[in-house]
Amino acid sequence: MLIAVDIGNTNIVMGFIDDDERIFGTYRITTKANRTSDEYGLMLLQFLALNDLKPTDVDDVIIASVVPKVMHSFTSSIIKFIGLEPIVVGPGIKTGMNIRIDDPRSLGADCLADCAGAYAAYGGRSLVIDMGTATTYNYVDARGTITCGLITTGIRTAAEALSSATAQLPEVQITRPRTILANNTKSAIQAGLYYDFLGGIERIITQFHREIAEPFQVIATGGLSRVFETPMIDVVDPDLIFKGMLAIYKRNQ
């Protein structure tokens, strides 16, 4: 069994992948830089136990991280509790993807794994959207080359900024509103955030279509990808990054 770990700014998400390449368990915890290796290790053991698994059932662990401060304690937990040195997506790792941007090292490990997952699962000519703390757009051509990308604010980040910068506006749950005709403060914020963000997604996709002279599919992933409903997104795949890490893992065996 392979454990794939996505360490993001807001959450750490783990996926268990069996020998048939089936993702059969996903778990999410809050990202905290001050957690110890013992804390991470105990959580991991609990997640294994929920699936009637032991550390000896784990063949390997692969990590894609955009939070350097967490890496020492988390990798130490893998070594201490699982007895394995994890594979870390980054320089020196074969990914099967060609990165043709000005500074390839600036591409986040999560974006790289997303693109690898899109290429492995759906083929090339894809615009890959990851809706997390930030929202990223990366284009993969027919040959598996990442040629360009875009970064903007995530909707949860925008909601937090709105409540923290105003005296009377509350924090709200990110959800798809039933109507834009809001009649109270909470629903007004929810509808405003949702439709403002949805409009931005559709406008960005439209602009990519205008500037790329070939048809492509749009694949969305990330914790909030299932909230937004638009015919301009062809595939919503919350497990895309795990598929990408599996593809990268297989290339490094």
UniProtKB/TrEMBL annotation:
Localization of this protein: Cytoplasm
GO biological process, one term: coenzyme A biosynthetic process
Endpoints of the signal sequence: none
Alphabetized UniProt keyword annotations: ATP-binding, Coenzyme A biosynthesis, Cytoplasm, Kinase, Metal-binding, Nucleotide-binding, Potassium, Transferase
EC numbers, comma separated: 2.7.1.33
Pathway in which the depicted protein is active: Cofactor biosynthesis; coenzyme A biosynthesis; CoA from (R)-pantothenate: step 1/5
Pfam families (UniProt xref): Pan_kinase
Keyword Cytoplasm on entry: yes
GO molecular function, one term: ATP binding
Cofactor: K(+); NH4(+)
Main subcellular localisation: cytoplasm
Binding site for K(+): D130
Catalytic activity of the protein: (R)-pantothenate + ATP = (R)-4'-phosphopantothenate + ADP + H(+)
Active-site residues from the entry: D110
Co-factor remark: A monovalent cation. Ammonium or potassium.
A single GO cellular-component term on record: cytoplasm
Broad EC category: transferase
Function: Catalyzes the phosphorylation of pantothenate (Pan), the first step in CoA biosynthesis.
NCBIfam families per UniProt: baf (TIGR00671), PRK13318.1-4 (NF009846), PRK13321.1 (NF009855)
PANTHER family, per the entry: TYPE III PANTOTHENATE KINASE
HAMAP family xref list: Pantothen_kinase_3
Protein name: Type III pantothenate kinase
The species this protein was found in: Bifidobacterium criceti
